[in-house]
Amino acid sequence: MKELEFETIKSNKNRLYLFIGIVCVVVLLITIIVSNTLAKYRVKDSVPIINSKINYKVPDLNMVSLYVANEDGTYVEADTIPSSGYILNTEQSYCGRSNNGEIVKDDTVSIIYENGSISVDNITKKGTKCYLYFDIGQTITAGEQILANSTNQLTRADFSTTVEDTTTGTIYYEDTSNGRTYYFAGNPTDNWVQFAGFYWRIIRINEDGSIRLIYSGNSSSGPVSTGEGTQIGKSAFNSTDNNNAYVGYMYQSGQVYGLINDSTIKGVLDTWYEDNIQADYAQYLSTEAGFCGDRSNYTNTSGTTVGGGTGTTQTYYGAFIRLLTNRTPTFECQNNSDLYTVASSSQGNKVLDYPIGLITADEVVYGGLAYNDTTINNYLYTEQNYWTMTPSFFDGSYPFVFYVSSSGNFSRYFVSDSFGVRPVINLSADVTITGSGTVFDPYKVQ
After folding, report:
1. What is the pLDDT of residues 194-247, one digit of tens each?
2. Neighbours of 331 (CB within 10 A)
3. Are 292 and 340 in contact, with CB atoms under 8 Å apart?
4. Which of 29, 72, 97, 318 is 20–30 Å from 211 (CA)?
5. Residues 264 and 185 both lie in one domain
6. Do 121 and 156 fall into the same domain?
7. Structure pTM?
8. By residue range, what is the domain housing residue 354?
């Protein structure tokens, strides 16, 4: 009996172990199945959309359909958001969810198209898809945007003293025989441009809509208003200085308007252009706008006797008469031979290798500096001496060219001295820009 009892107990124990094993296997299988099922529906990528975060599985990311208008007004499906030249048709564009084959619009979703990017805000429901329609829009040029940001557009009549007011939001204008030009003066904080890896200040919007810029720092050091960082180095205007010819940006001995030889400073600018602009950024620059190095000449300070300009004849150049005697600057170049342009231009002397030059003394005066009247509150003040492109006079022994002084005025000096070099370029009239023009949000070419 004891032996039989033992066998019965042993048999029951084996059955218990078998039952427990089966239960464990079933639980394990259920766990695996549930886990895999949940993983299929719950493991998703989090997609940030402005202020909303919608959980979507990777196969569900076909969230947007794009349609771009042809010139005939019909829409064709596109693969990419247009970067410029288009506007979002906000009436036709919408977001919504499919309901029994029909799209139900969700009016709580907002769509913003700006600078070639789309922002969609307030998507809160899975399955929402956006249908975006783009129409051909009117492009706003850089000049138009700068003017739109300048709430005060003024004229000036007195150029005898400095302008050192904070002139943010203000732009001045002058009418010339070529049209109206707009220029900055005083101490604006909204004429900064970042272009080609460098910072620049806007001098003016030329009559043809191109934008004239003067160098003011590189991207590695950031924008600078003062110090040596505002220039690319120092150079003599011309290393030779024994007759009138050497006041020329280009010159030929014995010729008032000679254009055979490059000045020393032109060689510096051309090399810098080759190294920094030519390969990647030349397409953004105007080949029409030129750089004036006015060599109109007189033998007296009143400008009543035309003559001189060659050899060692005492000569007073046009800017001397305009800026020192009469205090009346001009944006117009007095002689076509002195308007330095590239070969493809429709105007000027067409002798430049590259479309780069220097600021003129007349532009310095328009900018608010005055002869021997110092200021530190002007955007052209840099604490450095730097050259303009404008001849001043020849005293019988040495040629002089105007420069901006480290004291914040403009004066004249021997061409063989070494002063700062600040490149000047002209952005094409058809470029577009972003930004507000401040040092923290400079205009950037698109």
Report:
1. 999 999 999 999 999 999 999 999 988 889 999 999 999 999 999 999 999 999
2. 19
3. yes
4. 318
5. yes
6. no
7. 0.73
8. 142-445
